[in-house]
């Protein structure tokens, strides 16, 4: 029986650019940086307030990553969406969609991450 989600892997073409985005823009921290037995660079990012990590993988010699629109996204909770969006603007990052109010009263918005991935930002109503 599954007891816990440990990490989610995302393969990327430019791991340095992707690390900078998640660290500098969203405030995640690099937990580990290593090379796998297959030669892939693996970087694990810690998410604040969560035990789950994001694993970034750059695999030399692999076909380039092409993320189709709306394939997947990561969702992060923020305390104040308007304030967070203003801080993002100062870093040169604009909302790509939203903010919108959900039927639960949450506020959601989206930003574009490197490689065609998307990030959802959620201010919960509760």
Explain how this protein is built.
With 126 residues, the protein is of the alpha/beta class. The protein has two domains: 59 residues, 2,3-Dihydroxybiphenyl 1,2-Dioxygenase, domain 1; 58 residues, 2,3-Dihydroxybiphenyl 1,2-Dioxygenase, domain 1 (Roll). The chain has two helices and eight strands; from the N terminus they run E-H-E-E-E-E-H-E-E-E. A four-stranded mixed beta sheet has the order 1-4-3-2, with helices on one face. A four-stranded mixed beta sheet has the order 5-8-7-6, with no helix packed on it. The longest helix is centred in the N-terminal third of the chain and has 11 residues. The chain starts with 6 loop residues before the first strand and ends with a strand.
How would you summarize this macromolecular structure in one to three sentences?
Helices cover 17% and strands 37% of the residues. The protein has helices spanning 15-25, 81-90; strands at 7-11, 29-35, 41-46, 53-58, 73-77, 97-101, 107-112, 118-123.
Record keyword descriptors for this entry.
single chain; about 130 residues; alpha/beta; 2,3-Dihydroxybiphenyl 1,2-Dioxygenase, domain 1; 2 domains; four-stranded mixed beta sheet; 2 helices; about 35% strand; globular
Q: How are the elements arranged and paired?
A:
Blueprint: E1 7-11, H1 15-25, E2 29-35, E3 41-46, E4 53-58, E5 73-77, H2 81-90, E6 97-101, E7 107-112, E8 118-123
Parallel strand pairs: 1-4, 5-8
Antiparallel strand pairs: 2-3, 3-4, 6-7, 7-8
């Amino acid at each position: 029986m599954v007891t816990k989600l440990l990490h989610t892997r995302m393969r990327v073409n430019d791991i340095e650019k992707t690390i900078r985005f998640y660290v500098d823009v969203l405030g995640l921290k690099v937990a580990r940086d290593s090379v796998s037995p297959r030669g892939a660079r693996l970087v694990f990012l810690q998410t604040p307030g969560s035990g789950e990590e994001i694993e970034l993988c750059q695999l030399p010699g692999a076909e380039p990553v092409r993320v189709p629109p709306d394939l997947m996204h990561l969702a992060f909770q923020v305390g104040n969406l308007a304030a967070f969006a203003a801080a993002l603007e100062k870093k040169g990052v604009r909302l790509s969609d939203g903010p919108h109010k959900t039927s639960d009263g949450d506020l959601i918005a989206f930003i574009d991450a490197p490689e065609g991935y998307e990030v959802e930002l959620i201010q919960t109503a509760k």
